[in-house]
Amino acid sequence: MSQETASIPSDRSQERSRLIDHFKRAYQIIVGLAITLACTKLFPNWIALIPDVTFWLFCIFFITVVPIFHGGDRSLDVKYLGSRPQGFWGRAAYVWDVYMLLITAIFFVKIAQAIPGVGLGFGGGTPPQTPQLFYEWMTGMLVFDVGVLVVDWIKSGVLETQRWDELRVYWRWIVLNLVVAFVCFLASLHPTWILSHISVDTIAFSVFVVALIRSILDYSFGKNFMFP
């Protein structure tokens, strides 16, 4: 009898882990689709290996996806792996987190589709010929992620599903995302604004540098959160 009782917490923990993994798998599939789609836009002519605007947009996408995907994946473990959601609002918060992850992954797909090039156009659509749509989707994704972080920070403190201190890194990520979102927004205004005298390649490379710095700082600030 005592052995059966002792095995229950372990079984419940495994069930909770599998439940989290189910949603993670859906998240991973959509993100994997986005990366695959972006890869079809990269070097369509394998002989012409000279970096162009498509190359730099792919790099912006790739360098940004990884830390956001990593952080989203880890957030479920940090908040729910140790204990199950309690009450209606606790369960609602869990479902909210899952939907926010999936919507973020859908943003990744739209960003990948917006990379100019001759890659696969799912749904019969024609790939865009300018980077404007890419920057717009990047801006939208980063602003959306800021909103998710703000809501998550507040609800985690109110519902006590996670210690406030462990989410202290959120405000730094919020600032980083807002900075890069603003840069992408400015880039989306080319060539109708003051950037008209700068080439699209130069702008794309500059945005990549900003995105790279953002990702480095992302991991630097969130090392304790990201790497248990």
Structural class: mainly alpha
Total of domains: 1
- Number of helical runs? 7
Overall form: elongated
Could you give a short account of the major beta sheet? none
Low-confidence stretches: 1-9, 120-124
Instruction: Report the sheet-strand fraction.
Output: under 5%
Q: Distance between the terminal alpha carbons, to the nearest Å?
A: 35 Å
List the helices and strands in order: HHHHHHH
Q: Which percent bin holds the helix content?
A: over 70%
How many strands appear in the DSSP assignment? 0
What average pLDDT do the residues reach?
81
Description:
This protein has one domain. It has seven helices and no strands. It is mostly helical. It starts with a helix and ends with a helix. The chain has helices at 2-40, 53-81, 87-113, 132-159, 170-188, 200-221, 223-226. The protein is elongated and about 60 Å long.
Brief sketch in words of this structure:
By secondary structure, this protein is mainly α. The protein has helices spanning 2-40, 53-81, 87-113, 132-159, 170-188, 200-221, 223-226.
Describe the secondary-structure layout.
Elements: H1 2-40, H2 53-81, H3 87-113, H4 132-159, H5 170-188, H6 200-221, H7 223-226
Helix pairs in contact: 1-2, 1-3, 2-3, 2-6, 3-4, 4-5, 5-6
